[in-house]
Amino acid sequence: MVWIILLLVGLLGGTLGSLMGLGGGIVVVPALLMLGSFALIDITPQVAVGTSLLIMIFTGISATLSYLKQKTVDYKSGLLFFSASGPGAIVGTWLNRGFDTNSFQIYLGFFILFVSFILFIRHYLKPLPRSGKGIERSYKSEDGTVYTYGYRVLPVLIIAFVVGMLSGLFGIGGGSLLVPAMIVLFAFPPHLAVATSMFIILLSAMVGSISHVLQGNVNWLYALALVPGAWFGGTLGAAINRRLSSTKLVFILRLLLIVMAIRLIYEGLT
């Protein structure tokens, strides 16, 4: 029964992670900790994070391949983000060693609540002002609408480092911060932000998972059960994303974050 549950967790995490650009860890990590609290599996926050990051490699590959076919990945911007998120992921894996289960859940829950708050007020925030040295890009959607977005390199590198650190620390892929930052601060169209986020998460997860593997923080049997669902979920989430409007996409992302955050904080305090 536990293996069936893990397969379904991988599928749900892969689908929602690919759909929202979160990477899937926001589902996998809490689910593993919950199964541990019910004594169904033996898990620590460190192993939950390390195993989640390993799973996100497969979700990331599956989702990124699908998004590349849809031509919604800004890989040039993605590589720039990764140049800082990669080192951040290594720092995050080192910081993760000091967490116990309860404190881990509480900090993760409050972080997710912060992200959901940013999404609520996103209409009142303006993109960072861009100087002449900034990068400006454009994206043409399937309906012919042209979106213009852009950023300065230094803010991107700072945010990407923090995202990578949170990825290594919490095992959630960092997309729960990266997607809102792309939408709110740099005016990325939501669908483009999600697709590009999955590309960045794929690269960061590779770096973070290697660090956790070297520390012995991966349960290979649990990973084996999670991988098939994560792979198919990554493709499924990308297909669903293509059929949703930007408004619906942001609304679902916001609702998902709030529900997950409340549950994590409650479990951490009890």
From TrEMBL:
Main location: membrane
GO cellular component: plasma membrane
Topology within the bilayer: Multi-pass membrane protein
Keyword rRNA-binding: no
Keywords: Cell membrane, Membrane, Transmembrane, Transmembrane helix
Residues passing through the membrane, by range: 47-67, 79-99, 105-125, 146-163, 220-240, 249-266
Subcellular locations according to the entry: Cell membrane; Membrane
Pfam families xref list: TauE
Keyword match Endoplasmic reticulum: no
Superkingdom, natural source: Bacteria
Family: Belongs to the 4-toluene sulfonate uptake permease (TSUP) (TC 2.A.102) family.
This protein's name: Probable membrane transporter protein
Organism this protein belongs to: Halalkalibacter wakoensis JCM 9140
